[in-house]
Amino acid sequence: MTDAATIFGIESSCDETCAAVVADGRRVLGNVVASQIDLHARYGGVVPEVASRAHIEAINTVIESALVQSGLKPADIAAVAVTHEPGLIGSLLVGLMAAKTLAWVWDVPLVAVNHVYAHAYSPALDEEPIEYPAVALVCSGGHTALYRCTGPTELELIGSTTDDAAGEAFDKVAHILNLGFPGGPLIDRLAHDGDPAAVRFPRSLLRGQSLDFSFSGLKTAVLYHVNGTPGQRRRGRPAQASGAGRGASHLSRQEIADIAASFQAAVVDVLVTKLRRAVKVTGARTMILGGGVSANSALRRAASDQAERLRCTLRLPALRYCVDNAAQTAGLAWHYLRAGQVADLDLEAQATVRR
Ligand code: KG4
Ligand code: ZN
């Protein structure tokens, strides 16, 4: 393999059908994402069966579009990379079968890529290589994980969520506030008009030196703030007086913006505190953010302030590479291919992985 190898990537671990063409591990020549947001919005979350069916319907067109966008022919492709873990099993299988078929037909190696590792590689796309050692914080709808990285393919899990993922908390709080789905971008936008100090929501696991995360208490705190606590209702307080059980409909737009901003501030506070802790524990000089939540404007700002204080380099993905995409899959695969780490055509999909 030459350093100029061009890799075709496929990603379908959740609710986006993605294909991309990436040269030298970083130069994105084609990147296509078919989002299923509209399909899932009416259910307030991703429905696995709906997702896998939509992947089947979209995958051929997405593959073809990415190749056309790159201006290349199959003969120019050195390998096919695919996300094989973790994710929704039915969704992963669609991308995996497509990738195996392409690798077989094009007669090139298949490369297996972990989706969360790929998010931790996304800041390298269209940019300079990442300098290691680094700490990487990946926060998305399905994952909140902190890694010690000694290279793009060498990641050691040093912290993760004990319950909800950060993005999941954004989505659930947006649901409580009747904002819609997915919640992250909506809360981010609304928070601009709110006061982050209006409500002091809890910050979990900040005491001690833990690198783990917990967001379910914060989500419940928002729910009680909006609906009133069950105790309030049990004591027979009139629902009208406390707002108990009425959802967010009794709140003014300003109150909702204040809650959104205060919730976001609590999440960002926890994420950045853990990032700082991880830098101190590992001695790494590079901080990496990745995953859907890394698009959050408050998080990007706070991480950048923190990096400056710690005299670290912060690597943020471009906004188009924060959410799921196959460019990060193909980019990371280049490093596996270079190391001779290729997969067999009997490669299996795995829904959950913890390492
Ligand atoms: O990485 P991603 O596309 O999918 C997973 O691998 O899960 O992340 C999607 C998640 C959703 O929960 C969405 O609400 C969140 O990323 N998200 C954001 C923002 N944009 C997307 N969260 C906070 N602020 C944002 N601007
Ligand atoms: Zn993702």
Cα-based radius of gyration, to the nearest Å: 21 Å
Number of strands: 10
The assigned CATH architecture of the largest domain is 2-Layer Sandwich
Provide mean pLDDT, rounded: 93
Number of helices: 12
Could you give the distance between the termini? 29 Å
**In CATH, what is the homologous superfamily of the largest domain?**
ATPase, nucleotide binding domain
User: Structurally, how many domains make up the residues?
Assistant: 2
Name every ligand kind in the structure.
Answer: 5'-O-[(R)-(carboxyoxy)(hydroxy)phosphoryl]adenosine, zinc ion
| Helix-strand category | alpha/beta
Report the top-level CATH class of the largest domain.
Alpha Beta
Percent helix range: 40-55%
Strand content: 15-25%
